[in-house]
Specification:
Layout: E1 3-7, H1 19-28, E2 32-36, H2 42-50, E3 54-59, H3 65-81, E4 86-89, H4 101-119, E5 124-128, H5 138-148, E6 153-158, H6 159-164, H7 169-176, E7 180-185, E8 187-188, E9 210-211, H8 220-229, E10 235-238, H9 245-262
Parallel strand pairs: 1-2, 1-10, 2-3, 3-4, 4-5, 5-6, 6-7, 7-10
Antiparallel strand pairs: 8-9
Length: about 260
């Protein structure tokens, strides 16, 4: 059965202490949360250890695998405390069409080092298909995972990022599903718009392009149909980048449940 989580990136403009927000997410009925790197705070860790919410993923925001590697010992302790088995990383800091073979090998070697370091703790390294990284398309992400060749390297599948990279989420899901360990969902209002992944949201800006999954350009009923048909039973995480995150957390959870129920 598909489980629902909510990414704390939605609260990126709030203080690191998310006691109120996490309690609200639990009350809404989410199964879990994804912990954004800036929210790895003692208050949140203490609350989540007592909460019914499962920490489905911890998100490292750096695009430099060397920097990510230096975080690992600290992150590993937090991951074990929270019984989390997934860490999200990015694959380099250049789009695939300008990455040289030498740079590609460096990215793969660095990801292998991270995976090998975390393997002893049964922690998965999830690469996200994301603009301006080597894994910017589904075919490149698949190629990277195959070349890295580690059992604990998989994909954090971001549906909207497929669309942003010029792909078709509905047509490309089947190809990549054997590698998928976690799914991100967000929607966009229209086909012609500024990039929603231009990282303005890392500061204090909200994305005006964000739409609920039930009324944006991506047909999430077909997305969930694909996930169900592929017998996916992991987490689907709402990645809300717009305003009013708690109200939209409620709306999105209702949208997800209604969509899955409509599939029979």
């Amino acid at each position: 059965m598909i489980k629902c989580s909510f990414s704390t990136i939605a609260f990126r403009n709030d203080l690191p202490d998310l006691t109120f927000q996490l309690n609200e997410i639990e009350q809404l009925g989410y199964d879990g949360v994804e912990l954004w790197h800036k929210h790895i705070a003692p208050e949140n860790i203490a609350l989540l250890k007592k909460s019914k919410l499962h920490v489905s993923l911890i998100s490292l925001e750096t695009r430099d695998e060397i920097i990510a590697f230096h975080y690992l010992d600290k992150i590993s302790i937090v991951v074990e405390e929270l019984l989390c088995t997934n860490i999200r990383v990015f694959a380099g800091s250049k789009p695939s069409n300008i990455v040289s073979e030498k740079e590609k090998k460096i990215v793969i070697n660095n990801l292998q080092r991270i995976a090998d370091h975390l393997c002893k703790n049964n922690i998965n390294v999830l690469i996200e298909n994301h603009p301006f990284t080597y894994a910017d398309t589904i075919s490149e992400a698949k190629d990277l995972i195959v070349l890295a060749n580690r059992p604990n390297i998989g994909l954090n599948l971001d549906i909207s990022n497929i669309w942003e990279a010029g792909g078709n989420p509905i047509e490309e899901i089947d190809e990549i599903m054997p590698f998928v360990r976690n799914v991100h969902i967000k929607n966009v209002k229209k086909l012609t718009q500024p990039d929603i992944c231009d990282f303005k949201f890392i500061t204090n800006e909200y994305s005006c392009s964000t739409a609920n999954i039930g009324n944006g350009v991506i047909d999430y009923r077909r997305v969930f149909e694909k996930l169900v048909n592929n017998q996916y039973n992991g987490y689907v995480a709402v990645e809300w980048l717009g305003e009013n995150p708690l109200e939209n957390a409620r709306i999105e959870l209702s949208n997800i449940k209604n969509t899955i129920d409509s599939l029979g």
